[in-house]
Specification:
alpha/beta; Aminopeptidase; 2 domains; 10 helices; globular; binds zinc ion
């Protein structure tokens, strides 16, 4: 072979090698495949301010109707007021009427009130409280008064007051998420030391008949007795059983917001409350914010199921601690930072 042929062969070899290199598929490691174009992170949503005076006024207004015992004029008047408030705050409201049989045999004409924000949004959080009040004061020290209905400022009134203020805030501050607020009826007409199923009839009704077929949400938060001075919200057993991450994140958030004296890390046993039935009868996982004092015989406030459950036990700072924390959970959930 002469020099020219060798040179030509060399060139062909180089071209072939280069060509081969170009046509080979690039080697991509599995790790590299996972690197996708950077997603746009949602900007942090601003958490609006909870107005404690407003919440307090909503509790006061309920108590002024008188005891909200089903089948009474005060119950009906309060219902109409609650529905009108939710409407005025821009919610889409459902009044779900149903009959509920109490343990005494009484048929209650009952209504669950459901206020929806952004009903078309797939991502939702459910908030709840009960709006009825107990028909007797069976734990009153004065036995003569035990047969009379109680004012229910904290037991019923406080949770509803906080949720009304949250509804007002939601109406004024757009949130990129769905929020449902359910006020359950006939929670507190159950049999003392009786069958657990005699309690929380509204929650049981909703669990069997949700307001939207196949209704789903991220989680639910129940508020019950959230307004008394020095309230102590423990990590309740039923809540920890179904949604420990939600409880732990929320309690940590509350602590970071300066409300650690209310949201304490102690764990207490599961109690019968609306969430008890929701967690067993529906696909919602619901936690309970409820006052569990350390040093009372019943494990509830000294005023519990007595005539002392009036406006004197309601404290604005407690209402704000709960309401501001729940608002933070909502708006942080909407931007994915909860
Ligand atoms: Zn009660």
């Amino acid at each position: 072979m002469n020099k020219h042929i060798l040179k030509a062969l060399g060139c062909i070899l180089v071209i072939l090698l280069l060509g081969a290199c170009k046509s080979d598929p690039p080697v991509v490691k599995d790790d590299d495949k996972k690197v996708v174009t950077p997603t746009k992170k949602k900007p942090h949503a601003k958490v609006p301010r909870f107005n404690r005076d407003s919440a307090y006024a909503y509790v006061e207004k309920q108590v002024a109707f008188g005891p909200r015992v089903p089948n009474t004029a005060a119950h009906t008047a309060c219902k109409n007021w609650l529905v009108s408030k939710f409407n005025s705050f821009g919610a889409e409201v459902i009044e779900d009427d149903f009959d509920a049989k109490g343990y005494t045999g009484t048929i209650y004409k009952a209504t669950n009130i459901i206020a929806q924000y952004n009903p078309g949004h797939a991502k939702r959080i459910l908030l709840a409280a009960h709006w009825d009040t107990r028909f007797i004061g069976d734990y009153d020290k004065d036995t003569a008064k035990q047969k009379d209905p109680i004012p229910g400022a904290d037991d019923g009134g406080s949770g509803v007051g906080v949720l009304l203020e949250i509804a007002r805030v939601l109406g004024e501050n757009n949130i990129d998420m769905g929020v449902d607020i359910i006020l359950f009826d006939v929670e507190d007409q159950g049999e003392g030391k009786g069958a657990e199923a005699s309690w929380c009839l509204g929650a049981q009704h909703w669990s069997k008949n949700p307001h939207v077929p196949g209704y789903r949400n991220e989680f639910g938060i129940l508020l019950d007795m959230v307004g008394s001075k020095g309230a102590r919200f423990t990590r309740e057993g039923g809540s920890m059983a179904v949604a420990p991450q939600v409880v732990n994140k929320m309690w940590k958030l509350a602590k970071n917001m300066g409300y650690g004296n209310y949201f304490v890390m102690d764990q207490t046993r599961e109690i019968i409350d609306d969430h008890y039935f929701v967690n067993r009868m529906s696909n919602t996982k619901m936690i309970d914010i409820i006052n569990r004092p350390a040093n009372t015989q019943t494990g509830f406030g000294h005023y519990w199921h007595t005539h002392d459950d009036d406006m004197d036990v309601i404290n604005k700072t407690t209402l704000r601690a709960v309401g501001q924390t729940v608002l933070a959970v909502l708006y942080r959930s909407s931007d994915g930072s909860f």
